[in-house]
Amino acid sequence: MTTVAKSRLISHPPAAVWKALADFGAISRWAPGVEHSSVASATTDGVGAVRRVQLGRIALLERVTDWLPDERLRYAITGLPPAAGAVETTWTLLPQDGGTLTTMSTTIDAVPGPPGKVVSRVLRRKLGSESSRMLAGLADYLEELS
Length: 146
Description:
Elements: E1 2-10, H1 14-22, E2 36-39, E3 50-55, E4 58-68, E5 72-78, E6 86-96, E7 99-109, H2 114-145
Antiparallel strand pairs: 1-7, 2-3, 3-4, 4-5, 5-6, 6-7
């Protein structure tokens, strides 16, 4: 199992950061590289909500598994290569210094054996840079709104 975590202090309170994250189908408004996103379930928020995210030729489904307003959002990701195994992303919001310490961590539980090791290594590297870009995109988006 591998975890990639990146953090950024965003100069807005947790409620403002949460509002952007909780608009679950609208990640394409602020996440660089997300060409299109939409809700793909009857529920638009909370545990069980699903969104479809288009990243170039890759389409992912993200299903909410934990929803704690102003504190934490966790979702399981499907649509990656099968060797990736189980992949889950968690956003954690902590009030700090008049803003929010926002952490995005992704856990990769790749399948055993060489294919899983290769995919895990590639995903770890890619997700590290993408996590930083997403945090920056979220911060920029919130600045534009204020």
